[in-house]
Amino acid sequence: MQVSFFLRSLAAILVVSSAVFCETTPQQEAPAKESQIKGMPPRPTPGDYQAHAKLGDVTLAAEFTEHAISTPEATFSSEDYVAVEVGFFGPPDAHAKIAHENFSLRINTGKKAPITASVQYGIVYRSLKDPEWQPPEPPAKSKTGINSGGDGGQDNTPPPPVHMPFELERAMQQRVQKAALPEGERALPIAGLIFFPFRGKTKNIRSVELIYDGPAGKVNLRLH
Prior knowledge:
By secondary structure, the chain is α+β, with helices and mostly antiparallel strands. It has two helices and 13 strands. Residues 1-7 and 9-35 have low confidence and may be disordered.
């Protein structure tokens, strides 16, 4: 009877352990799937972008979004970088090898106009801003108290800087990461954002030229 009780107890433990394993395994895989770069939804046709050009069987399309960084969920901004929304199109079952290093940007054409290389999306994080977020109002300064400076007790110390909460900052970065142009061997159509350093005011921009030099070929797209 003791052997029978032991066997029943062992079977119950195995059943519970199996159920716990089945429940936890999908949860452990979820974060990896969420962190994958998905890119932007491709527009219906290449003609829906500012400019497009053929590269053999592949069509490259692009639109200059200035200092605005538009993701499917929200639009952010950066004073230090500008963004270009890029789309690759092709026939059914077409693929293309994609890398942000294949892109560069020339702003304001001329002999002295520099050509700027694209940067990896993570570099843009530090300069990201959310126009929808407003810092809380600082507390009113007290006009009473002891002050040896003879200014009536006023505290002239500037208030400490207010930073965006970490949770909001992280969510903003994740949205930009997911909207970045996916890299590697990819099925078409596919689209996403690429980024270039530029601190100037967009009102001073006279022309913008996107330069692509990669596995699909070489082409210049005038975007402004």
